[in-house]
Amino acid sequence: MHDTNGFGSFNEAGQLIEVEFEGKKGLYSHIMLLDNLPSIAAGREIWGFPKKYAHPTLTVDSNTLLGTVKYNSVDVAFGTMGYKYQELDKDAIKKALEKTPNFLLKTIPHVNGRDVSICQLVKYHVKDVTVKGAWTGPVNLQVFNHVQAALHHLPVLEIVKGFHFIADVTLGFGEVVFDYLK
After folding, report:
1. Catalytic-labelled residue, pool 51, 70, 106, 123
2. What is the pTM of this model?
3. Which GO terms describe its molecular function (predicted)?
């Protein structure tokens, strides 16, 4: 993320899972790995994002987009994709980003060290979306076992599709759609 208000520039990678809540498809944030402590703190404290400090990178190597994630000094993910291989409809990407609900589980432990004080399913949307470019193409992804960055708990069985896009978005505040403690 470049030029974010109040947080500076940072890199972020995440694992999203397609889910259904009340008959509507959405995306669940399973884990997010990034290299910016203020963004980790705000994301976890305000929304409840499952953020951890790591070192994601995204670079272009000739005709290939390269994505890597390191947790400390250990590789936990490596992906490649054809760079700007086939253009996608930017309006369709914008519509999907704005309409698709996103979910996360906000949990805050109790000060007694045993109980949970907050356990909520939170829904949020992105807004003010401007898609500058979107592409699809051949893709490959490898995830590696790591106890602290458990991407491997959802192994890659089949790659259905791959795409990347460049966009400006605003992260909207969330709403609690289910409180597990009430």
Report:
1. 51
2. 0.89
3. lyase activity
